[in-house]
Structure formats: C-alpha cells, structure tokens
Design goal:
Elements: H1 23-31, E1 75-78, H2 85-102, E2 126-131, H3 137-150, E3 154-160, H4 163-172, E4 177-181, E5 190-196, H5 211-215, H6 228-237, E6 248-251, H7 255-262, E7 272-277, H8 281-290, E8 296-301, H9 316-328, E9 332-336, E10 343-346, H10 355-369, E11 374-378, H11 382-391, E12 395-400, H12 403-410, E13 415-419, E14 426-428, E15 432-433, H13 436-447, H14 454-457
Parallel strand pairs: 2-3, 2-4, 3-6, 7-8, 7-9, 11-12, 11-13
Antiparallel strand pairs: 1-5, 4-5, 9-10, 13-14, 14-15
Helix pairs in contact: 2-3, 2-6
Length: about 450
Amino acid sequence: MINLLPTVEPQYTCPGETHSISRAVHLSRLAAFYPKCRECSHRCESGQLPQLHFPPTGAPQPVASQRSLFTLEGIRGSYLNELTRHKAGEFAAAFASLLWDTSPLTGRNDLRDANSKRPTRRTGPVVVVAFDERPSSPDLVTGVAAALRRMSCQVVDIGQTSVPCFRFAVAHMQAAGGIMITGHGCEPSWTGLDFVGKLGRPISAAERRTKAAENTVDPHDTTHSLSLDDIYDQREQGTTRPLRQGGTQRVFQASTPYFAGLGKQFHALRPLHISIGCPVRALRRTLAALFEKLPVTLHWVDIPQRRRDLQQAHDADVRRIREMVTSQRTDFGFLVDDDGANVAVLDEQGDLLGPEELLCLIADLMLSEQPNGAVVIDNAPRDRLQPRLSERQARCWLGGWTQSEMWQTLREDAAVCGGGASGRVWLRDTQPVTDAILTLAKLLQMLSQDDAPLSQRSRVTP
C-alpha cells in the first residue's frame, strides 16, 4: 500500500533566527561555512557532506578585503563582484550632485518666460555618457544614465567610442561633465568609470597644485576643483534629488565632428609603411578611414583585449608589433593601448622607444613650429627629461602626477606639448588633448620632412 501522507521533513533553526529552514538549506549553509553554523547544535548533522571542522567559538575570523575602488584616475573593480549597475549608479548620482552644487544659481526672475507668467522649467547640467567595448559596459552605462536622469540631468549618450572621442564630445557640446564606462588598464573582467569636467578636463584624485597652475585656473570654470575624493565623499554622504522632475536623454553621433577635426592633421606625407596594432575597434575604423586616401600603408596586427605594459620590450603585444616590423620591413611600429591614448613606438629595427625619447621627438617637431613654446612633463621622469629638453633650449614645466594636473598646466600660454613616464603624449589644440591618432600624425609629419629613419632621429644624448 502506497502512503500518500506527506513526509515530515526535519526543520532547523539557526542561532539568533526565529524562522526555521529546511534540511536542504541547512546542508547548504554547512557547505558554505555559514558563520552561525559554528554555534549551532545541529552542525554535526552533515549528511553526505565531508566532516566539517569549525574553529572554536571566539577565534578570530577572517575579514573580507574591502579594497577601495578609487584609483588615481578613476574607479576600477571586477564586474559584479565589486562593481555592479547599482553601485555605478550611486557614483554617477554623487557626480551629478556635485555638478548641481557647482552650477550657477538662477534668480527668480530668470525662471519666468518673458511672454508668460508661468515659470519656466529649470534645466539640469548636461552630462555626456559613453562606454568602451568590454562586454560589461552596456550594463553599467544603463545604470549610470538612469541615475543621471533621476538627478534631473540632461544626458547625452554618444554610445560605444574611445576615450579621446569621449573627451572631445564633452568639450564640443560644452557639457558640464561626462562619465565614461571603461576598464582600460585592467583585465577584461574588470570595468570602471572615468569622470571629466568642463572642456573634457580629466577628474583625478585630489590635486597637489603648483602655484603656476593655480594662477591659470579659469574663474568661470566652477568644476576645476572637483576631484575623485569629492565624488567619494558625496557618495558616502548620500544624494537627494535636486528637482521633482526627471532629466532627459538623447543620442549624439560624436564620431562625425571628431573625425572631421582629425583630417587636417594628416597632410604633406611621404609614402610610409606602419606596423600598427590597436584593440579598440572604433579607433581602428577611424584610422582606416583616415588613411584610405593617404600615401601611408597600414599593416595591421591583431591585438587582443588584455592588460599590457607598453614600456616593456618583452610584452606579448610589443613582440607582435616587432615581428611585423622586422618581417614586413616597415618604417616603424605603433601600438595603441585600450584607452586610445597611451602608445608604444618601435623604430624600423624593432627597438622600443622609451617614453622620454618619444616626447623629445614630438617636442622637436612642435618647437620647430613654435620656438618660444614650453614642454610640460610629469613629476616622474623630471630628472631624465629636463636635461634633454634644456639642450634644445626648451622651457620645462612640471605638470604634476595626475592627468588633471597635466591638463591644467598645459592650458598655460606657450605650452605646446607634454608627457612623461606613461607614454601618453599631450598636445595643445583648442584644449589639451591626449590622443594616439594625433601622436601618430606628429610622427608622420616628422618622418615626412626627410628620408632619415626613425632610429637616427631617436638617438638623443642625455
């Protein structure tokens, strides 16, 4: 005879809890070393689990690592384990709250339409959002855009793009700031957020400003003092909605004006061959379109999405470029990092140029066009770069340790370029920019002046 009565399953209650759990949950908690199991009288009922040994009560417990997600230039963390859509939205809301605090106040008379007695709607700050090619980026940018709209910001979505194009879009649209979802400099499983202020100025950790840089601060730029420390503090304090109505969101194709501005940099070039590698698809498409009608031939090298060290000759991607240079006998090799700004340059013999040599080459070209110019260097290679640039009768300014400090110092009059230990070359256009495409343009202009190979030009006496 079949017993149709339900079987009564033993119930367990964890110490300090009022509700009971099933045997399956009890075994799952034992297998996961649930903290309350060490004090439970049923911890010996482990079923088919191996014998579990709990440390005695009162023994010190391991503490989970609470690594700060804030770095010198942005926020970085492993996707989902450390940085989720919700947490990214919290950082975006804190940034939006700071933009609201620094935005100019609007008087009561300005809130009314000239042809109507009804008050006009106050508009929030314009914030540009973008993301890179990592699989986790679309998820995080959704949370960032939603948080900005809750904070009554006007969101401008430029989609998937490179970091230089993103900064260009912020300056081009005269936005109050921007957030880029990117994990450049980290493994593919990581992601993060980069923040910029007005005119595309990078927002870094708290600045140690020099006296010269303080004198060049634009009094109308109310976001010049923002740092990552302010975003951290604002998130800890919490944010409140500035207005009852939400913000807006629209799409803008920033690649069109960005591409139009690059064309003027490539002119009067002699036939050259370049071994080039870049993991950013958007940047590769831009380069392919730029060189379509130029006498320069690009020999592409497949570069994976990974963390790399551009200053080490034994790096796997640097070796790939070297093999292409030597096998195809190209004029030089050019490797772009996943931020679209940091580069590694190899001469026609496959030798890797140091960042100091690269900056000196660019400085020679820029100073020949503007003899009274100055060069900004970061504090890391000052002992190596200052003597070399002094031999060229160039004035040297120290820009600091962060991208924000370098950007601000380059805004001073007569500063033509900058760089340092990172391999990132700064150029002075309408605003200071660091873009691998512009660095490539300057190298091509220099090599087009005569037939001298790059190895002869890079021999700089310290």
